[in-house]
Design brief:
Blueprint: H1 9-24, H2 29-36, H3 41-50, H4 52-78, E1 82-89, E2 92-100, H5 102-119, H6 121-124, H7 146-150
Antiparallel strand pairs: 1-2
Helix pairs in contact: 1-4, 3-4, 4-5
Length: 152
């Protein structure tokens, strides 16, 4: 016997609305479906395929998630996420330093930027400009030693 239930149209509508609400605030589809145990991923996509209204709701939720991620990048960049660095000597704590965890914020921002670039590459993707007007051909490539380049 399947662990998933048979849904009426009204129950499907309610389930899709709850799923889309979660997605619009940054949750992934798989995470949301597992959280509610509502329906499997293939069944959800089947619902979207069969009902244009559900598909429109899901598309709008995805757009809202893009905006949520964009806002989240701004929030993370402007916040300070302190971390405590504890120093031990001979097994005893002798100093605790609280400082901003810049590396963690940078990682979160880069992950969100990558997601946004994949979700909507035209709006958030990196722009690559190719110039067809280049007249000179590349004839050689020069490799430089890093040690020579960093010493002044």
């Amino acid at each position: 016997m399947s662990k998933y239930l048979k849904y009426t149209e009204e129950q499907k509508q309610d389930a899709v609305m709850r799923i889309c609400e979660e997605i619009s605030i940054g949750a992934s589809l798989t995470e949301t479906l597992n959280k509610y145990g509502a329906v499997s991923v293939p069944s959800f996509h089947y619902w979207l395929k069969k009902n244009p209204e559900f598909k429109d709701m899901y598309t709008v939720a995805q757009k809202h998630r893009e905006q949520f991620f964009f806002d989240e990048i701004i929030r993370i960049a402007g916040s300070e996420e302190p971390t405590a660095v504890k120093k031990y000597r001979n097994g005893e704590l002798y100093e605790t330093i609280v400082r901003d965890n810049v590396e963690s914020r940078r990682l979160k921002i880069n992950a969100l930027k990558w997601c946004l670039g994949k979700m909507n590459p035209n709006k958030y993707g990196e722009k690559v400009i190719v110039d067809n007007e280049t007249q000179t051909a590349i004839t050689s490539i020069k490799f430089i030693d890093i040690n020579d380049a960093t010493t002044d």
